[in-house]
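Appendix B.2, paired examples.
Example (i):
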Amino acid sequence: MPRVLSSEDVEAFRRRLCVAAEALFAERGAEAVTMRELAQALGVSPMTPYRYFKDKDAILAAVRAAAFARFATALEAAMARPMDPLQRSRSAGEAYIAFALAEPQAYRLMFDLNQPTEGDYPELQAAIVRARRTMTVHVEAMIEAGLLAGDAELIGHMFWSMLHGVLMLQLTGKLAPTIDPTKLRALLFSTVVRGLGIGGR
């Protein structure tokens, strides 16, 4: 008779499955990975994953939700320390870069993947909203402090676009060998900071 699984057993296996799936999805693309291969990676029967997730799409959603949550946690922690608004914004950017470089597989699944069924998974949706919020909260603080003026969401997305663009070029090896990504990011942000007049008032 099959062993009755506790909630802890279920959660532990779900975590193991998501870890294996993240690596396979990032390496080969979600479309190329089968449930059988996921089961094989964990040394279980082909039907075992179905006891924990409806299908591969649900696994992908869980993997991405967990990654977005880790990402948001990292940025929230970076911005929680006592500091002035400009320092908080810089800290958020540093945390963003550190996460992407430490977890490149997760980062690419989060932002470089189109999952048409995203709206079917409330946990994933909530994690995305939470992560997106970290892109604007530090900008709002700078506006409140009088360091800049404008639409916080739009400015936050501008910073986000710059970070993401350079990081994706870096992670995919598309930057020219002569380009230092750290210097490129510094130049981009110093240019934008001057344009926005941050710290110059």
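Example (ii):
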Amino acid sequence: MNWITNSVLPKIKAWVQADDVPDNLWIKCSACSQMIFHREYEQAFNCCATCGHHAPLPPEHRFAMLFDGGKYDVISLSPIEDDPLKFRDSKKYTDRLRDTRNKTGLNDAITVAAGQINGYSCVIAAFDFRFMGGSMGRMVGNGIVRAAKEAVARKGALITVPSTGGARMQEGVLSLMQLPRTIAAVELVRDAGLPYFVLLAHPTTGGVTASFAMLGDIQIAEPGAIIGFAGRRVIEETVREKLPEDFQTAEYLMDHGMVDAVVPRTEQPEYIGRLLDFMMRSKDSRKRA
């Protein structure tokens, strides 16, 4: 009887009972394969404590990290017609949008929010790579324009956080039109005498790099982020030369004058706060002493 009670029954219970241990307690770093306790991972804003790898960070988590006290207001974007070109590749663009929205819970690849950083009014437009690779279509262009106008109305700084594969091919020439639109939006902020910062996240490529993403008064990048226009393979085949191993990384671009600073996430709120204090102190009479 003891044998049945002590040995057989526990095995039967373990076999028939559901596992009560959550399957998301640990997260595997995609860079070094280190297992990280999910709470520590979230507290580090999706950064690996072992190798320093900066994994993608959803806009809402980035807003909570950057804005004072994690408080911010999301700026709504007006809806637009999804598929004016009636585009189809392997599937209809409307079907692709529907499937992506159902999977991610997002409406498009950009979110705009307003709040304060170090006591100064700021508007942040952040990309979400989960939505079709963060590609820039008309809605993303609208988001940048709306963010710029909101920054001017609030007399605050504009910060964009691109993480994208470039222009959205399913919107054809309409996506390419977002390049001059976003540049014009940046000029609105400049004409108002307000700061414009770019925080380059991994990856930032294509038409976004060729437009507003490289026009910041200060260009900040996250460690290890890949930043460029064309891909590494395309460049190597074009110039017929082997490129350096760290080519197009944030650190490489900083060494060659394309980026002003490479700043880890844990230091970004303080770093951006100091920039705002330097550039906006005389403009904001409401700044605390």
